[in-house]
Amino acid sequence: MLEFEKKVLITQKEYEMLTEQKYTNGTTYRQTNYYYDTDDFKLNKSGITCRVRERDGSCKATIKDHQHPWQECSVENLISCKGEPDKFFKRLGLQCQGSLQTERTVFTVCPGVGVMIDKNTYLDAVDYELEVEYDLRFEATAYMEMKAIESFILSNEGKDAASEFHRRIGKGDRKSERFFKRKAHLKKMLGKKRASFDSQLGKE
């Protein structure tokens, strides 16, 4: 399945404005992504995301290929796992590398275009993201909705804030990329601490 979306990382203030003032009729729910990869994150580095998404007690396994020639597009393959998505990835030799929790507010602009505003918590980090997801037939409507959001920020925060928002559109890393970058950073920091500890033991 092809998935089209316009993405932008947003600030906490923008997140609060959008959820409390603009998309007040949206539906909010929570979901958790469990990411699977090799211990050296080979798949993530290749633009492949393997995840199990849990929502309302139901789990779905997905493989997403982000290396698509079309801008703002990824290929999503839903895997049938007979109720055991965790075992599916483990049979492929992949390990669960951790989880990312999302509080998501969804607003339907029209059939074929939806706005999703996320608060993501993972590995002691928190970030915020906005996605306008659309059917390719409604790309013009999705573009207009993103411009409406930019105008909303302009009217509330001024020209500089709107320009900064516009600059960020399509520039941030994907959720899985941010997760694995954070994971690699923590792994590196842990390695340094262990090396320092071992060095201190050697001096005693």
Can you put this structure into words, describing what you see?
With 204 residues, this protein is α+β, with helices and mostly antiparallel strands. Helices cover 39% and strands 39% of the residues. The chain is built from 6 helices and 8 strands; from the N terminus they run βαβαβββαβββααα. The chain has an 8-stranded antiparallel barrel with strand order 1-5-4-3-2-6-7-8, surrounded by 4 helices. The radius of gyration is 19 Å and the shape is globular. The model has no long low-confidence stretch (mean pLDDT 89).
What is the 3D shape? globular
Q: What is the radius of gyration computed over CA atoms, rounded to a whole number of angstroms?
A: 19 Å
Q: What proportion of the residues form beta strands (DSSP E)?
A: 35-45%
Helix content: 25-40%
**What characterizes the major β-sheet?**
8 strands, antiparallel, barrel
Determine the number of helices (DSSP H or I, runs of at least 4 residues).
6
Brief summary of the model shown:
This protein has about 200 residues and is an alpha+beta fold. The chain has 6 helices and 8 strands; from the N terminus they run βαβαβββαβββααα. The chain has an 8-stranded antiparallel barrel with strand order 1-5-4-3-2-6-7-8, surrounded by 4 helices.
